[in-house]
Structure formats: C-alpha cells, structure tokens
C-alpha cells in the first residue's frame, strides 16, 4: 500500500504536469481555429473522390479521446468509408501506431503497417481534404468494412452497398 506522503507527492507532480498542458492546448486550439476558418471559407469545387480512397485531411485539434490531426496543419490520413454526396462522406482516420482491439482494423497501405480507427468515424466535409494519397485494395477495404460492421453490430443484411462509381457526384 502506498503511503499518504507518496500519494501527495505523486498528486503534486500530476497537478504540475496538468497545469502546463492548458497553455499548450490553448495554443493548439487557437492555431486550429485560424486554420479552420480558412478551410471553412474555401469555396473551391469539391474534388472527385470515391469510397475506399485515403486522403490527407484536416482533422483539427479535438477534445478528450477524439483523435487529433498532426503537425501545424492538423492533418491525418482518412479512409473514405461511405460517400454521401459530392460534398460529404463518412471517414475513418488512420494511425501508424501499433494498436490492438476490436476498434482498430490493421491494414498495409503504401507499404506501411497502419490501423484504421473504427471508433472514430464521423462525417466530413470535402473542404477538409488536403490531398489524395491513394486507394485501398479490395482485401483491406473488406477487412475495414467487416470489422466496422462487427464493432457497430450491423448485420450483413443491413449493410449498405459499396458505391465505387461517381454517381453521387
């Protein structure tokens, strides 16, 4: 059992670390807000994109356990899981960090072992696209879809079809 003196020391060290975090977090939030305003005001036409593609996308600085973008541009690769129209899609972010669990789908893309973060899926606007990286092969796309549907308890008969043409824009 840990002594009260040791608990107090650990608590004090944790408090000091947490007091340093808000300054860095506020700087990151302010930087993201500035970039987000530019992205929001971008009036370019949507690029042609389709399901199973991976794009560098502006993810941003998010809250709590939500996955963040990296570096000064707050970007991260995102898998286009479901295209809704020419403006929006359901995207799943990727990470190169080794992960295990039912909420990660392991794939190899451009020769790099990566994990698709199935629990962080959300709707994205096309203006978050930075640049296209490439398209996943059928094998890895099927792994992602099967694991996503299993994680979210979606029966096979209720799964939406994959739309690979550009019929929605």
Write a concise keyword list for the protein shown above:
alpha+beta, globular, 169 residues, 30% helix, SH3 type barrels, 2 helices, 7-stranded antiparallel β-sheet
Helical fraction equals: 25-40%
**CATH architecture term of the domain at 53-158:** Roll
Estimate the mean pLDDT confidence.
81
Radius of gyration: 19 Å
InterPro entries: Plasmid_toxin/cell-grow_inhib
Region (Disordered): 1-20
Account of the protein in words:
The chain is of the alpha+beta class and 169 residues long. The chain has a domain at 53-158: SH3 type barrels, CATH 2.30.30.110. Helices cover 30% and strands 27% of the residues. It has two helices and seven strands. Strands 1, 2, 3, 4, 5, 6 and 7 form a seven-stranded antiparallel β-sheet that branches. A hairpin with a 4-residue loop joins strand 2 and strand 3. The N and C termini lie far apart (63 Å). The model is unreliable at 7-11 (pLDDT under 50). Residues 1-20 are annotated as: Disordered. InterPro entries: Plasmid_toxin/cell-grow_inhib.
List the helices and strands and how they pair.
Layout: H1 4-40, E1 53-58, E2 75-83, E3 88-95, E4 104-109, E5 112-117, E6 122-125, E7 129-135, H2 138-151
Quick summary:
The chain is α+β, with helices and mostly antiparallel strands.
């Amino acid at each position: 059992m840990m002594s009260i003196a040791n608990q107090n020391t650990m608590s004090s060290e944790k408090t000091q670390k947490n007091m340093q975090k808000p300054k860095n977090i506020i700087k990151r939030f302010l930087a993201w807000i500035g970039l987000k305003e530019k992205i929001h005001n971008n009036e370019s036409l949507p690029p042609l994109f389709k399901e199973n593609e991976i794009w560098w996308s502006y993810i941003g600085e998010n809250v709590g356990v939500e996955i963040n973008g990296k570096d000064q541009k707050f970007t991260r690769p995102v898998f286009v899981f479901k295209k809704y129209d020419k403006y929006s899609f359901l995207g799943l972010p990727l990470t190169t960090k080794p992960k295990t669990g039912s909420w990660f789908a392991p794939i190899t893309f451009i020769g790099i072992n990566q994990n698709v973060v199935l629990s962080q899926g959300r709707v994205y606007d096309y203006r978050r696209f930075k640049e296209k990286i490439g398209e996943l092969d059928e094998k890895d796309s099927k792994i992602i879809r099967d694991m996503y549907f299993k994680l979210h308890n979606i029966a096979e008969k209720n799964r939406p079809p994959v739309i690979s043409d550009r019929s929605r824009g």
